[in-house]
Design brief:
mainly alpha, 3 helical TM bundles of succinate and fumarate reductases, 4 helices
Length: 133
Amino acid sequence: MSEQRPFRRPQPADWWARPPYLAYTLRELTGVAVALYGAILLAGLICLWLGPDAYAAYRQALASPWSLAVHGLLLAAVVWHAVTWFEILPKTMPRIILGGKALPQPAMTAVTTAFAAVCSIALIAFVVWWGRP
């Protein structure tokens, strides 16, 4: 049996700092911000379930300057996550052929963004209509 090891291509020490890898890593890190914001909202629901005193303490904690700064950063991260998601989504979808020609990627981005906006508006309208007394 041979004692040779398989060839492994050397990786530069700063591979993560190259633009494609850095953009991918930053986009994936914004997913952590989305999860963190979801945890904050879940904590609010739990405090609401625990009663008026717990919910008042939760709202008071949210009114602090640190909380407002964290929410500003989380908002920026969530917006970046959403924007990059709609840029990536058309690249992962199968090509749409219209009239024998493939729909270009900018048109695919516009279509998916418009579809998401219509679905969001419909969901909000349904919740508002359903929540009427």
